[in-house]
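Input record (one chain):
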Amino acid sequence: MVATIGSLGKTARSGGVAYLKVGNTVGRGALNESGDADHAVCGMSIAIDVVGGKWRLHLMWVLGDGPVRFGEIRRLLTGVSEKVLAENLRHLEASGVVHREIYPEVPPRVEYSLTPLGERLNLALRPLEQWGDEHRGEILGRPLTATA
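The corresponding structure, as predicted from the sequence alone:
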């Protein structure tokens, strides 16, 4: 395992936040010549390619309750732009974990849902959510408060 300090750069949102870049140099997660994880060796890199990024995990959570229309997803995920949402849904669809259903109506109705592969991935993500709930206070430095 190799760790180096990197920088996101100074932006209005990041404020120049530093990050820790971690690279695996052994067995199960070997790196290819470009420095990316080798998909033939590391299953984790495949999963991260599917759900990595700011919004994809949130999309999996929203779609876990059943088919949802684009506008409803935007309302549930405050802060995501229409462009970014569309890009992330296309990525999840291309990865085979999201199904896009277009209904021949005027105006056209489009619903997104998880495929059987997406359902299995969503099951695999639940322990990650549970871990986050259990350790929220340690990570964020404040206890979980119930909202009514």
